[in-house]
Inverse folding.
């Protein structure tokens, strides 16, 4: 069982081999990122037996503003490039040996999380939307969930707000 | 304006009490939780309050024609064969109350008002535009029509076929701006003439009639006249237009014939405005309802639609003093219907529309991720 605190949430991954803050800023830490000036990064990387999870966490003060297309599209771009840069970094590390799933914990209403899931799958893109000449995939799954949906769905990976 | 509704042992309700917003009320709930019954009960009592000639006997007939109980028997409107009562409070301290029993056919009606005021209107889920032409043919007879449609439809049709010439809707600054918007969205207007009802393509443009003196010039600048310009010589049969357009056309007609302006003090009830309407039309619909509300119209509608709820949440403006109250009907463990109300979109509970999203999301995750994380 691996536990970790991230952006005001406590995560537990009961079946994880490893969990770490991907964008580690401290040079003294073994997972020091070192390229934060050049590359975007997801919050957590989780290693499971047969896949990796990239996890991005965002709690919003004004979640309703993402109903507006401009804010929504900006958020989509941020999430997309965080994934792609993280994937590139992991490729350079030689750590893309398992399929990668992207899960975003965003405190939005369910309608918006469903819309963002659909958009992200097209934008990453997922294997089902891959380029016509691709023989490898860069993402095998994507889900955008709020806290309520996450805890109902991922019962082996409970999340709670840090007090 | 209806302030509160109480129903006891009435149709599906054992006991329910609802406090309405003076502005916009959105009722949600799964099928079978009584949304339409609630709308109809509030509509019936509002009608009793508005019509001085509404006696107890006429009210009983009205209820039967509105709800269509089995065998047209009043006692079929009683919940669990108990004494039923329906009561409403209105603004200016007015009220109306009706009661009837499972073994008696008569209704007792008590009203605090004896004056007639503007009548409320109920727009049903099914569009009525396509049946208006038939209704206006007198030889078909009212009885034939009343067998097919409840009194709510008949009242609406009568209002749509009427025309208040005293209201110049195009120059009325309160709602006149909505007509060109609606017309632009559906690409034309429904025209009501002696020959019948048809749809003509076109749009509203500023009138080229220039004012002839300074006073008129001021009026012109205060309120620019708009006139309909058709870009087609041919009309389209009403029945050939899209059903969603015909629903929007209902509001277009009620604005153009002066009803919505002339009866601004009476509530507007609308059952499932979204039925047969493309979600892209929903923003226009909500904008129109908010504009009506800003001009004093109380709106009470029932919906299953996420987009409708969400557009209200997005388009309401505090500085324009918009107010939307969400009422959620749900079935308790005992089987009784209960209601919870909130003024905050995010705290609607229970929210069957949101729960549907959850079911969709989970089904999608089952397909794409299997048992991962479980």
């Amino acid at each position: 069982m691996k536990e970790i605190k991230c952006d005001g949430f406590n995560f537990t991954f009961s079946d994880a081999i490893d969990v770490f803050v991907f964008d580690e800023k401290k040079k003294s830490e073994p997972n020091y990122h070192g390229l934060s000036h050049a590359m975007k990064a997801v919050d957590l990387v989780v290693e499971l037996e047969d896949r990796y999870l990239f996890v991005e966490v965002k709690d919003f003060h004004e979640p309703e503003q993402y109903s507006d297309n401009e804010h929504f599209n900006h958020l989509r771009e941020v999430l997309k490039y965080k994934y792609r840069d993280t994937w590139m970094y992991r490729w350079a590390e030689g750590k893309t040996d398992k399929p990668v799933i992207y899960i975003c914990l965003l405190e939005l209403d369910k309608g918006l999380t469903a819309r963002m899931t659909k958009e992200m799958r097209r934008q990453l893109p997922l294997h089902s939307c891959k380029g016509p000449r691709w023989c490898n995939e860069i993402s095998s799954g994507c889900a955008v969930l709020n806290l309520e949906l996450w805890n109902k769905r991922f019962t082996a990976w409970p999340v709670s707000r840090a007090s | 304006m209806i302030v509160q509704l109480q129903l006891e042992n009435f149709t599906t309700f054992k006991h329910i009490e609802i406090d309405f917003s003076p502005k916009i009320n959105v009722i949600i709930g799964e099928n079978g939780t009584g949304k339409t019954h609630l709308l109809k009960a509030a509509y019936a009592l509002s009608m009793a309050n508005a019509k001085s000639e509404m006696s107890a006997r006429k009210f009983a007939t009205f209820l039967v024609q509105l709800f269509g109980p089995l065998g047209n028997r009043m006692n079929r409107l009683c919940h669990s064969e108990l004494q039923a009562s329906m009561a409403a409070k209105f603004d200016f301290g007015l009220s109306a109350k009706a009661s009837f029993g499972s073994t008696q056919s008569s209704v007792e009606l008590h009203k605090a008002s004896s004056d007639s005021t503007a009548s409320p209107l109920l727009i049903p889920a099914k569009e009525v535009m396509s049946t208006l032409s038939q209704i206006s043919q007198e030889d078909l007879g009212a009885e034939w029509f009343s067998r097919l449609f409840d009194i709510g439809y008949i009242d609406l049709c009568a209002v749509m076929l009427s025309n208040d010439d005293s209201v110049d809707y195009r120059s009325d600054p309160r709602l006149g701006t909505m007509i060109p918007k609606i017309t632009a969205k559906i690409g034309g207007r429904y025209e009501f003439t002696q020959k019948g009802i048809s749809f003509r393509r076109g749009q509203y443009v500023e009138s080229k009639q220039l004012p002839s003196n300074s006073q008129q010039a001021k009026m012109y600048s205060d309120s620019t006249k708009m006139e309909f310009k058709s870009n087609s010589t041919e009309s389209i049969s009403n029945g050939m237009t899209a059903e969603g357009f015909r629903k929007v056309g209902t509001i277009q007609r009620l604005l153009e014939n002066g009803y919505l302006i002339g009866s601004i003090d009476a509530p507007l009830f609308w059952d499932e405005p979204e039925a047969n309407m493309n979600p892209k039309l929903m923003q226009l619909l909500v904008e129109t309802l908010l504009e009506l509300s800003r001009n004093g119209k109380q709106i009470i509608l029932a919906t299953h639609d996420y987009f409708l709820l969400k557009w209200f949440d997005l388009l309401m403006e505090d500085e324009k003093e918009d107010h939307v109250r969400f009422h959620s009907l749900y079935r308790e463990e005992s089987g009784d219907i209960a209601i919870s109300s909130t003024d905050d979109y995010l705290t609607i509970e229970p929210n069957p529309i949101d729960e549907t999203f959850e079911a969709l999301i989970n089904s999608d995750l089952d397909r794409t991720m299997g048992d991962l994380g479980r």
About this structure: The helical segments of chain A are 69-93, 110-123, 147-153. Chain A touches chain B at residues 51, 64, 67-68, 101, 109-111, 113-114, 117, 141, 143, 145, 149, 152-157 (CB under 8 Å). Strands of chain A lie at 2-6, 9-13, 18-21, 44-47, 52-58, 100-106, 141-145, 159-161. The first helix of chain A runs from residue 69 to 93.
